[in-house]
Design a protein that fits this description.
single chain; 300 residues; mainly alpha; 13 helices; globular
């Protein structure tokens, strides 16, 4: 019974990509909460290093079998690991030290559009009218939620260095998602381990610079331990399993639209955990987001 349910879940792109958005929404909230308390590069380095150690025992048998393919494609696997995890998350954590949650959510909503642009430029994909309409519809929902129904509030947004870092991070995520179709024929857990390892190695020299040049180091507090535990398991291991499999099932453009669920789940977390009131703009935004996701995720 359980193996059958697990198999059905692993082949359900909507479920997998929705879970990915939920876990990354938690990462977004946590990344903002720890800003100024936990060094961003150190958080990223420990996140990927711990994720590598957790996955290694499960990946080892497959890694041994896939080693010839890994060795032949190590440069490409390292590239995906750096842009998809190491650089992306480090840029986001650094950016969240300098920008507001509102700006961050607005900039993250550009993800599906940047993924679509990357697919068109790199692989000459053709976007359907349905995909374009669904993307714009869900993005409108994101803007309604993050502006709290006051659209004129968006005109007051201004870009600072944190915003530019987050925007650049979303752009390289577009490249990463588009390139996932080129991953070698290796087991998915082998692929994820290679990504996590490359991300950790990429951040290793950066964390030394952060500590030695700026004097920023992790402090062994309960808050730090809990934060590291969360980011290593949920937005790293589980979210990347869901995202990689989701892209494999329905493609990068259709999978990318699920990034718009991140502010949707972020708002639900704020309502459920922080006791924030449910307002009319929440309902309107949620309807637009879910309608756009449903429209775009339909099979062409």
């Amino acid at each position: 019974m359980l193996p059958r349910l697990a198999d059905r879940a692993f082949n359900n792109a909507f479920l997998l990509l929705s879970l990915m958005a939920l876990f990354w929404a938690g990462n977004q909230v946590l990344g903002r909460a720890v800003a100024g308390h936990v060094p961003p590069v150190a958080l990223s380095f420990v996140r990927w290093s711990l994720a590598s150690l957790i996955v290694l025992p499960f990946a080892w048998p497959h890694l041994r079998r896939d080693w010839p393919a890994v060795r032949a494609n190590w440069r490409f696997l390292a590239f995906l690991g750096v842009v998809g995890g190491g650089a992306f998350n480090t840029l986001q954590y650094i950016g969240l030290n300098y920008t507001t949650a509102l700006n961050s959510l607005v900039l993250n909503s550009t993800g599906p559009i940047l993924i679509a642009i990357a697919c068109v430029i790199l692989f000459r994909d053709r976007l359907t009218a349905t995909q374009i309409s669904g993307t714009l519809l869900s993005m409108a929902g994101v803007l309604v939620v993050v502006s709290r129904g006051e659209v004129e509030l968006l005109s007051t947004l201004s870009l600072n260095r944190g915003d530019l870092l987050i925007l650049f991070a979303m752009a390289i995520t577009g490249v990463y998602t588009a390139c996932l179709r080129l991953r070698p024929e290796i087991h998915w857990i082998t692929f994820l381990f290679c990504q996590f390892l490359a991300s950790g190695l990429f951040n290793a020299p950066l964390v030394l610079i952060e500590a030695l040049a700026f004097g920023k180091t992790l402090q062994p507090t309960l808050f730090t331990v809990l934060a590291i535990g969360y980011v290593a398991i949920f937005p790293s291991i589980l979210a990347y399993i869901c995202f990689t499999r989701g892209v494999e099932l329905i493609g990068g453009v259709r999978a990318g639209i699920f990034l718009h669920l991140i502010p949707f789940f972020g708002a639900l977390l704020a309502i459920g955990l922080l006791g924030e009131p449910l307002a009319g703009f929440h309902v309107l935004g949620f309807v637009l987001i879910l309608s756009g996701v449903a429209l775009t995720s339909r099979k062409p």
